Amino acid sequence: MSARCFEVRPPVTRDDLLAELRRVGDEGDAFWSAFSDRDFLAPLGTAWSPADNVRHLIKSGRPVALALRLPRLVLRLLFGRARRPSRSFERLREDYRAKLAAGAGAGPFAPLRRPAPSDPRAWRAGLMARRARAWSDLVAQAGRWGEPDLEGYRLPHPLLGRLTVREMLMFTLYHEAHHAANVASRLTPRA
Length: 191
Hints:
Layout: H1 14-33, H2 37-41, H3 50-69, H4 72-79, H5 89-101, H6 120-142, H7 147-152, E1 154-157, E2 161-164, H8 165-187
């Protein structure tokens, strides 16, 4: 599968955002499921294995779904009110890429090193089930938010600072596609 398969259609409305979250989630399921068990667990040179990428995506996505479950008042008290409109998907993506180019990394969201599982097939099935639950929960929680609230509340991002809820969802959408595209590009021989 080529890295081009993971291009995100920039969402504008809440409904666009939800549709794109569903589409990219489904695409991710198909991509991560296509690996053999051996290849899923194998590092890609010095880079994370596909399994490590999935673990990272779960670890970084779960807090977003959890935050979206909190009462709006709690979010406002913890992170303040949004004082500016959301950046566009393209601007947010460029800001994130600039942070990565400057050397930012996954920090506490990096997957911890683990010994090889004794039953790779069962371990992988469990990991993919956790991924599916986490992504499904994220989409369900995002669906509880209306257009005005996506702009009015903020959540903290470890690299980008406080983002509107819309920006956080756009980031999460891009982040999922970004990791799948990176893995795909490492699998594609360079001409």
